[in-house]
Amino acid sequence: MKPASSDVPAPGVRVEVTSLTERFVAVLTVLRAHHQIGLTLTLPEAVLQLPEPYRQSVGVFASISTAGYLHKDKMLEELARMRPHDESPDTLRAMAAKRELEALVSAWDGEGEPPAAMVAWASSFLASWLVDSDPKASS
Question: What is the distance between the alpha carbons of residues 107 and 13, in angstroms, rounded to a whole number?
């Protein structure tokens, strides 16, 4: 039986990192941190209890589009929508990160590229998040 077109995975896209502008990389870094926090806060608690190899196989799909800049008002709206999920003891780290990002976004004038402090925070958050969530990295 021939698979339906929806069953066939789309071909991967290769992006030459050196062709991306610093501004675009900064925007992507902040968006990645923002969405990592959102996914962590909104995933069902049962999924968060799974050991890491199984958590990685949970079907979560996120789509992000950007014109290469951030929208302060939209980011604050999304962070506010995450608040109902702030009460879970399983997401304390993500809650703290959300508060830090919310403070950085609130202090930003919303013009131009994200400030260096916001990009540095997002980079640090993502680096520590990946190390802490990878059992091989901590051994």
Answer: 35
Q: Check residue 103 and give its pLDDT.
A: 94
With 0-12 CB in 10 A as exposed, 13-18 as middle and 19+ as buried, what is 33?
buried
Q: What is the dihedral of CA 91, 92, 93, 97, to 10 degrees?
A: 100
Low-confidence residues of the chain: pLDDT under 70: 1-10, 43-50, 52-65, 84-91, 130-139
The pLDDT value given to residue 136:
47
Q: Give Cβ neighbours of residue 41 (< 8 Å, ≥ 6 apart).
A: 82, 85, 86, 88, 91, 94, 95, 98
**CB contact at 8 A, 108 and 114:** yes
